[in-house]
Records
---
Amino acid sequence: MTDREIRNQTKPFLGWQDFARLFDCGRSKALLLMHEVGVVYIGHAVFVPASKLDDYLAEHGSIDITWPLSEKRRKEARHERR
């Protein structure tokens, strides 16, 4: 059985803990990855349907993310534009 089949059989929705385990990362990066794939909110909790992750990876091959700029870097960027 492949990882994909195991994921779909065990959990229809993946939380940030599942993403952190799958991609060997922390909470912040797991949440960025999830939002790149597409999330579903159940109450205040964020999930990604396992099938959506499989489809995304099949189409794109990987998940590319960029970190948002920190407040300091945003200020620097504003000053450079002037």
---
Amino acid sequence: MASPAWFYEFTRAPPIPADSDIVEKDFAGAFHLVGLLYAFGNLDVWPWDWTDADRSLSAAMRDAYVRFVRAGTPAAGLDGSETWLPLSADRPVSRIWDGDGALRLEPLSSHTSEVVAFWDRYYGVEL
């Protein structure tokens, strides 16, 4: 890989009210792009019952994005000491953003590994 890349999965389902007209509320869980509300601190755009866990997760994601922009790594310690290291063939792990913002790493699912392999082939590089 020419440049380091960090992989994450956002799995937190937002607190969509039952009477909302948002189609995703009944089946989507952490639907596409909802993580951006958290990553950019825009939870209050939607008048939902956000919890302290939602706000904590949002703060942790914002911090990681800012660190990445400033230092080129989203890890808390600029030396990578948080252990969220770049994705590599010998370290195929994903950061899971789920509830409280605590660091949780999991192996890539077989489906995700296949998707990553597809893009590696497409761009002519290997992880």
---
Amino acid sequence: MVKPWLTATGRRNRAAVRHSERTDIMQATTPRTLLSITAGAAIVCSTLAAAPSPASANELNEPTAKIAMASAGSKVVSIAKGQVGYKESGNNCTKYSSQCVSWCALFATWVWNKAGIKIPRYAFTGDLYNWGKSKGRSHWVKGKPLGKVNAGDLVLYGSGPSSPSTSTHVDIVVGVYKDHLKVIGGNVSNKVTMRNVPRKNIYAWVDAR
């Protein structure tokens, strides 16, 4: 389950501790189920299992593919691809955080930081939407077409940003196609993976540019 990592001190740190205690209780009472990435499946950051749909060798050259040309998006894709295959050590312990916590959002913000995008190192995926909203970068798409998402952008799964049970996972887009996205995500079967996912179960995306 997601435990928020906030960079601010004092009040925010105390809030993060309270959330961590609440999440530990949820982990103790909830089975650790590995979920496939299919059109109807829920996606949970700390329990996500990779169910990749391999791309064809020529997929990235298809006319329907849209690869971002903007500098920020290109940097994000390059950095994210360099992390594919990285595995956590122990239980959620990674180089993306000094704490051993669920890390899909920590991976995404680490990549964005490396690409020069100044975003706080959030652990809760809903905070990515709220940050983007404050910067004019978030795009709400629940129940609507996905819109002009591009490589380098972040896609958020679930029903909304209010809690870890409603905002469940984040991926970095590396390719956009008519019926699916190619994405890279952290904490998928305990590692960084690149895979194809349906253009569904996404409530919002956050613009890298």
